[in-house]
């Protein structure tokens, strides 16, 4: 708990009603994300909430909120769209939920790069970019709700990562503006790769982002494709061929084992219980060659799918990445998922090992992406959940088979598999958040916990 009894009254006094909201139902809602995908996190986090929501309308107002928090030693949890999966925005020690969604302006758009305020939704950025015949290099499947800063501080990659890699790949995030949590907050600009890494996927622990400059892509009129395969291996092999062929321009390659795609209710007519599916976004000029390639894998290319998607105003991204899990959980409320990086050379063998041991208790879901220039299968398999012990058994088997797990059943940053730059994040935290008020409890580092009352 914050270390001052009447801080909330003082905060209400200090800020306009439009900025500070203490309505309990609202504060509770704004203290939650999609952690409930995990039965473990659900149990741990469902009773944790902030004390108020502060939604600054300007950067100066945001600095005033942070100054107030520093003076009174009140925890602050920055929040974007609240679409994270690991309870990243759940305040473990109460305090202020810092809603950044009113900082939502495009600051500058040039050919090839753009600067936007932290709380601008990625969907709005994408729409704005179309006016200059540009688009985001990549975005999460939640892009209509999630914000630029929420993605940078909480995400990894998404639709477009097969071409451009992830947030950490050089040249994607160019510059960040960060505000510190001190009595007199400072504004920092960081540009260098090793400096940027202190804020990417940092859960907001090391500073509050107020602006980001990112690299943009030239707009392509992507074609959506859905291809069905009677055999999962054939679907995987085909998807790999498309992924590694640099002559095929693509934005998405998403593979689902049967019967995962039957839960995609808006496009269920294109799925069957027996077939694996591959969803793609392809440059129109390469659609014919992809169709030809699919025919060599005994696949069924759904010709009417692009038209169906178009006339029904659907988005193929809604059936990829962690939306696959979301659709499945709608119908199978007890199930859950994992995140794993399979080996690009042995992934078929790793899939076989999992299927041999767990059968349909583990349902394979891959997206092909680039990491530091190498094409790799990233996966979010659905797990038919039984118990924590059984889940751990499955995680152990992933390790045994050499599949790197980013555990989505923990709210601790380093235990989610992202442990290689936690030291740098903590260095920045020490400099920018001397009272350790930012998102307390989300790292197991003693330095972080010690100062929280
Ligand atoms: C259905 C579904 C699909 C998803 N698909 C993808 C995907 O394709 N790729 C992917 O990477 N992720 C995915 N995610 C996870 C999540 O949607 C993304 O990471 C998203 O970009 C988070 O953005 P947000 O604005 O909702 O962030 P929030 O959930 O609000 O916040 C995420 C983290 O960022 C911090 N933060 C927010 N704003 C700031 C700020 N201004 N300064 C400092 N820290 C800040 C928060 O404290 C929190 O730790 C998915 C989640 C769901 C539920």
TrEMBL record:
Keyword terms, alphabetized? Flavoprotein, Oxidoreductase
Which InterPro entries does this entry report, sorted A to Z?
Answer: FAD-bd_PCMH (IPR016166), FAD-bd_PCMH-like_sf (IPR036318), FAD-bd_PCMH_sub2 (IPR016169), Oxid_FAD_bind_N (IPR006094)
Domain FAD-binding PCMH-type, chain residue ranges per copy: 46-219
| PROSITE patterns referenced in this protein's UniProt entry, alphabetically | FAD_PCMH
Which source organism does the UniProt entry give? Halalkalibacter kiskunsagensis
Say which domain of life the source belongs to. Answer: Bacteria
The record's section on Pfam families has: FAD_binding_4 (PF01565)
For this entry, the protein name equals FAD-binding oxidoreductase
Q: Does the keyword Oxidoreductase apply?
A: yes
Q: Does the keyword Hydrolase apply?
A: no
């Amino acid at each position: 708990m914050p270390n001052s009894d009447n801080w909330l009254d003082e905060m209400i006094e200090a800020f306009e009603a439009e900025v500070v909201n203490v309505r309990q139902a609202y504060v509770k809602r704004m203290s939650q994300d999609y952690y409930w995908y995990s039965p473990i996190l659900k149990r741990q986090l469902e009773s944790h909430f902030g004390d108020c929501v502060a939604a600054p309308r300007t950067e100066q107002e945001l600095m005033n909120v942070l100054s107030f928090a520093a003076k009174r030693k009140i925890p602050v949890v920055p929040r974007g769209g609240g679409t994270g999966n690991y309870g990243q925005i759940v305040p473990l020690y109460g305090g202020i939920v810092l809603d950044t969604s009113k900082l939502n302006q495009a600051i500058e758009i040039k050919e090839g790069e753009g600067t936007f305020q932290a709380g601008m939704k990625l969907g709005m950025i994408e729409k704005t970019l179309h006016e200059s015949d540009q688009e985001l290099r990549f975005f999460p499947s939640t892009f209509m709700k999630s914000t630029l800063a929420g993605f940078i501080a909480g995400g990894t990659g998404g639709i477009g990562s097969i071409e451009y890699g992830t947030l950490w790949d050089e040249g994607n995030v160019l510059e960040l503006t960060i505000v510190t949590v001190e009595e007199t907050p400072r504004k920092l600009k960081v540009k260098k790769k090793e400096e940027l890494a202190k804020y990417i996927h940092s859960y907001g622990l090391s500073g509050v982002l107020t602006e980001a400059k990112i690299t943009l892509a030239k707009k392509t009129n992507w074609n959506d494709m859905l291809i069905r395969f009677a055999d999962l291996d054939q679907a995987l092999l085909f998807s790999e061929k498309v992924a590694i062929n640099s002559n095929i321009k693509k934005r998405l390659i998403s593979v689902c084992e049967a019967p995962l795609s039957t839960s995609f209710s808006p496009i269920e007519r294109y799925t069957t219980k027996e077939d694996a599916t591959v969803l793609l976004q392809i440059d129109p000029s390469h659609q014919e060659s992809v169709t030809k390639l699919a025919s060599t894998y005994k696949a069924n290319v759904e010709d009417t799918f692009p038209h169906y998607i178009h006339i029904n105003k659907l988005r193929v991204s809604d059936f990829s990445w962690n939306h696959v899990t979301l659709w499945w959980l709608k119908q199978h409320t007890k199930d859950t998922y994992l995140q794993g990086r399979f080996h690009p050379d042995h992934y078929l063998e790793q899939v076989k090992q999992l299927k041999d041991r767990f059968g349909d208790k583990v349902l394979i879901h891959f997206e092909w992406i680039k990491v530091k220039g190498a094409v790799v299968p990233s996966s979010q398999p659905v797990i038919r959940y039984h118990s924590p012990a059984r889940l751990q058994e499955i995680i152990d088997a992933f390790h045994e088979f050499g599949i790197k797990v980013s555990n989505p059943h923990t709210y601790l940053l380093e235990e989610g598999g992202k442990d290689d730059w936690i030291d740098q994040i903590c260095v920045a935290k020490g400099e920018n958040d001397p009272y350790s008020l930012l998102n307390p409890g989300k790292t197991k580092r003693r330095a972080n916990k010690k100062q929280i009352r």
